[in-house]
Amino acid sequence: MLRLEEEIFEKLKCLVNQNGYINTLSKLFVDNMFIKNNSEKNEELEKLYLKHQNSKEYLMRSELNALYNVMCQGTLRLECSKNIDYDFQYNETLNLCEEIHKSIFKYEHKQCDNESLQWREAFFYGSENQHTVQLKDFFKDKYSCDDNWLLSNKGFSISDTLKIVETLNGIIRLRLVNEQEILSGGKLTNDFYKLFLFTIDEISFHTDLDNKICSSFLKAFSSEDEIEKYNKLDDLNTRKAYPFLKFSDNQYFLPSLHMLLEAMYETPYHWMIKDDNYKGEFGNNRGAFAENFCEKTIKKVFGHENVYKNVEIYKGKNRLGEIDVLVAYGEIAIVIEIKSKGLSQEARQGDIDAIKKDFNLAVQKAYEQTVKCGLGILDMSSHKIKMNKKVLNLENKFKKIIPICLISENFPSLSYQVKDFLKQNFNKEIGRAYVIDIFFLDILCEYLDSPIMFLNFIGRRLRYWENLSIADECIALGYHLSNNLYFKDEGAFYALGGDSAIDLGVDFIKRRENLNYDLIDFKLLGLHTSGTLGEIVKQKNINLKLEHLELFDSLLIASEDSWHGINKAIQEIYSRYDADRRFHSAALQVQIHKFGFTFCIDNNDSVFCLFSIIN
Asked: Which of 328, 337, 412 is closest to 370 using CA atoms?
């Protein structure tokens, strides 16, 4: 029989407030937030729960943050004795966290008919793929125009902040090297918490910043004036916004660098929006950040000449709307609408009306805007496109619109919400909307950096939208890179677990941090960029027609043997052409997928392809 959530939470409070629990909490953070490397350098890679997010033996970041907040709200007891049973505290924490998860969802057979409870569970325990390196980079871009405000009102700048973060990261990694006995299963000591204890003097020394600047930073992110009562796991967690715990005027405790980076990304918004003299300018800066980021990231894929920002659609003198970012690529247009709207606290606690209201503001309105503008650019004969008040004369004759709704704030379980709440009308000309956040867009463009591969993945993902169940878009991308997102039986229902997102997340961190680790060899990336076909797939400047995209879609589901066979056939007709300068062709049949190709080389030294379905 499951105990009530409130009863378990009270048990958890009592446990967390036991003497010496800060050492147990520190060990939990180390075990769940760091992965040990067995190389001679013995470096540590923050894994952000990736490896163990689906394991009962490990805690998610949201659970760790909740434990930290509970501990901070109680009476911190550091007078440790030799009789503390740290093993009991550790294991009992895992047991109670597992029990409270079951109690929230009220499932004994993993079933629940209460919609509110389902969303509570999805929001608190859902996967989060905001990586540390992204938060650090995005913080710099998001508040780049607000640097003077930070310096004047908080006493530190963006560059000061980044220096302090790098210093804290370096100190933690060095300390971890000296704690190998405990990390390898040794007995927990009474001062293990000092792994995460920092002094202003220490930070000032390593950053070469004035003590006053370091003190201002630590105070800003350790406010004790904002504390909210915390009676259940998904109550407002004040410690996420103010992650430093002040021990003394010179000492501060921080068990998670990721928590600090999340606070850096989100908390300054609340400071600035309260400043009546600045909130207007800040609102403009906030919107510009997301648009600039999207433009810069999409250009990596489609090239500078095919991407436009803040495009206005006119019919006569009437302005129909504005496209935040437009990709004009042959006969295909990607219409991107960006919203800076996060999920409210009421919604996170399962308030269905609040969930629907937030979704409407963040997604539904964005979708409707993309469709309205998409219809306009499909009919170029009666509409004008302007950018910077000047008419934009695009030569494209669009036949396909891909709407993308992009969110710049934390919006958990987004894929599930889109499936449940988004009302859309799609057809051959205006496709189904792809709704993602900027964190995923960053990852997507990192790996699929050619237009063909980018469009192919989005097409596949949306094709399987109704019959593919995933908690996060990184799962679909990770699966695609490893296995190719293709299912022979399109009428069947498929559910993918989080394993594919784990490899993707770890590899992404390695890439961005330039760590000395072997990158993961994703099968699809290696295959689809190999040979003559791979060179074609990687091209950015193609006047892409819809039939070309259909051709590439068919090519990109070919097996490894078929792909190599096609490359070999193309090389063969090239060799024959080089020998006699005459027309040559090669026909290939891909039986498993029931289609075929005929590749031809003409006297202009170019290869072209004919595609047919095999009856």
From this structure: 337
